[in-house]
User: Which sequence fits this backbone?
């Protein structure tokens, strides 16, 4: 379609773009909602896309909700969404372990209840979730008993992250046969009410440093997030549009998978960020330049209503 | 036999060691893996220290281990058979971090510390005000309602077995202010214990705070130069050209020595191996030269043999 990039999406271009795709994938935070508030117009956009025969999916790096919890939140905010349309990293990581790693054994989990549930849903047992306080001497920590059935260390968002958890993960990971997977590397997690706190990326980095190993990552911009949706719904990347607010996760995922990409300015990244990547000419930055941008996804309404 | 100089990974013993030591005024030792392993002394280490002092050398101990205050180190030295090591000769990353905050950064305000008692005590000894966590009952708060101290002017991250998410979040909040200093005691990703076991190190905690704050910490411990500058500020005329750094970790001790302009010696009683040292030597990476030790010994106990040989020769000649 467009040869030039980072184009303002207005007027007839909107309809042109929408006609060229069958499926629209939305990031959540900063795109359709901020915390517990829907972005004005977002509900209308999604409903109208469906009315226009498009399939709609939600792809988020946030690991602290199950698909069911996401569907409930969406319902509360007025979005009409089914569980099957939502792809959070708790669900995707469980699918990754089941279908790609084909894990046989348990997981040592630094994570949360949603991850625990999604793992259980695919029949994978975990150990380690919940508080884990320090006790004993350094020698005790270095010699913590390791469950021989653990075949993977998994890291997601965890309020209870502690030195002891870091220690256990490190001890397991000294065995090179044990798989190391993180949900995502976002450094900050947006909270209800607009605050932000350290994100899963900090926890992953901490474990990577202690263990001197790199985690595989499931979340955007890793292709698996798209693969997970595409394989379940038979999507053709060329007929998909990725809508997001972060250049280094949403837009990069879209570029990596051959999707069309639309940046919305209601979240993290700015137009200046996008233009800087474009001007740099550096090959590794070009994937972060969106095809189009809008101030807000509400900008799509006129074309959808018309 | 002429001494082979330059970063050549030369295994030396006997008269070669003696010749090297005769040319040096100061010997700096790392501790873990060099003079002891956990609670087990490296055989001959106490005798080596005494011997060097008898030869008129200044001896310093430079350790990234921040789990004890200096007074505790003095007790440990005594417990393991060292008879003549004074507090003033011991430089830990905790002590040097406190000295840096007080004397170099001259912090006017409080420090938010993520650190064990070893770190906290050194700050208190140095008279550096810290945020009193217990007084605020801060650990019982949740992420939404913990108080931030408006007097915080620096964040220090060190080894902390009580590290948790709330501490990480607080540090991150303080570091949103670009005027707030960001220090780390040391970069070690893991610490060795006896028997090849390890525990997570300060470096793994600093990595979390750096990622959360999108800022890079100023690291006090080896391989950064600050610890050498701390020693030099207290011992005038400390000439790196006349100093030898003895350590067991290429990425901390040897790199530290190289950066400070000292000759370096790897001892094989700790973490790094001869193969690893040769690996850096054979590498095409232009930066890898600084990781290559000038000299290698099996153990610092080899120093004893060097002086015994000299004595024997003198007896024969005399």
Assistant:
């Amino acid at each position: 379609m467009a040869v030039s990039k980072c184009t303002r999406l207005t007027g007839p271009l909107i309809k042109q773009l929408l006609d060229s795709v069958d499926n629209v994938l939305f990031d959540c935070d900063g795109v359709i909602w901020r915390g517990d508030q829907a972005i004005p117009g977002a509900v209308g956009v999604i409903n109208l896309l469906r009315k226009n025969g498009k399939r709609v999916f939600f792809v988020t790096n946030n690991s602290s909700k199950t698909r069911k919890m996401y569907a409930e939140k969406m319902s509360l905010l007025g979005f009409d969404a089914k569980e099957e349309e939502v792809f959070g990293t708790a669900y995707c990581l469980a699918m990754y372990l089941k279908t790609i790693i084909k894990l046989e054994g348990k997981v040592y989990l630094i994570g949360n209840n949603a991850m625990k549930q999604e793992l259980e849903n695919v029949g994978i047992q975990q150990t380690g979730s919940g508080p884990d306080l320090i006790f004993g001497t350094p020698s005790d920590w270095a010699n913590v008993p390791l469950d021989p059935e653990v075949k993977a260390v998994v890291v997601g968002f965890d309020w209870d992250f502690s030195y002891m958890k870091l220690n256990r993960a490190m001890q397991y990971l000294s065995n090179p046969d044990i798989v190391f997977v993180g949900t995502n590397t976002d450094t900050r997690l947006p909270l209800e009410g607009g605050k932000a706190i350290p994100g899963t990326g900090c926890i992953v980095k901490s474990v990577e440093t202690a263990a001197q190993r790199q985690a595989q990552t499931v979340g955007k911009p890793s292709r698996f997030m798209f693969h997970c949706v595409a394989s379940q719904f038979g999507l053709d990347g060329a007929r998909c549009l990725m809508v997001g607010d972060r250049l280094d996760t949403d837009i990069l995922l879209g570029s990596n998978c051959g999707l069309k990409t639309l940046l919305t300015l209601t979240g993290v990244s700015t137009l200046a960020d996008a233009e800087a990547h474009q001007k740099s000419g550096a090959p590794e930055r070009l994937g972060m330049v969106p095809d189009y941008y809008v101030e807000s996804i509400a900008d799509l309404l006129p074309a959808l209503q018309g | 036999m002429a001494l082979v100089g330059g970063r050549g990974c030369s295994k030396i013993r006997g008269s070669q060691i003696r010749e090297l030591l005769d040319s040096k005024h100061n010997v700096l030792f790392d501790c873990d893996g060099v003079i002891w392993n956990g609670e087990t002394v490296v055989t001959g280490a106490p005798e080596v220290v005494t011997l060097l002092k008898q030869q008129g050398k200044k001896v310093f101990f430079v350790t990234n281990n921040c789990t004890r205050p200096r007074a505790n180190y003095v007790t440990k030295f005594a417990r393991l058979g060292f008879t003549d090591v004074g507090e003033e000769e011991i430089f830990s990353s905790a002590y040097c971090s406190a000295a840096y905050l007080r004397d170099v950064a001259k912090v006017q305000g409080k420090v938010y510390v993520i650190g064990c008692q070893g770190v906290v005590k050194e700050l208190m000894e140095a008279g550096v005000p810290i945020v009193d966590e217990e007084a605020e009952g801060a650990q019982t708060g949740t992420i939404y309602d913990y108080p931030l101290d408006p007097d915080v002017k620096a964040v220090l991250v060190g080894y902390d077995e009580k590290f948790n998410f709330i501490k990480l979040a607080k540090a991150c909040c303080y570091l949103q202010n670009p005027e707030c200093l960001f220090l780390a005691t040391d970069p070690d990703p893991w610490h060795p214990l006896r028997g090849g076991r390890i525990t997570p190190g300060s470096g793994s905690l600093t990595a979390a705070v750096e990622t959360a704050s999108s800022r890079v910490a100023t690291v006090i411990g080896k391989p950064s130069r600050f610890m050498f500058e701390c020693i030099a500020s207290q011992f005038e005329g400390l000439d790196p050209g006349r100093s030898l750094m003895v350590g067991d970790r290429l990425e901390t001790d040897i790199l530290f020595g190289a950066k400070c302009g000292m000759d370096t010696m790897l001892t094989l009683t700790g973490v790094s191996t001869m193969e690893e040292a040769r690996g850096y030597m054979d590498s095409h990476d232009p930066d890898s030269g600084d990781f290559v030790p000038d000299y290698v010994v099996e153990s610092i106990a080899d120093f004893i043999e060097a002086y015994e040989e000299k004595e024997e020769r003198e007896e024969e000649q005399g």
Remarks:
- The first strand of chain B starts at residue 10 and ends at 11.
- The two ends of chain B are 22 Å apart (CA to CA).
- Residues 44 and 301 of chain B are 5 Å apart (CA to CA).
- Residues 302-317 of chain B form the longest helix (16 residues).
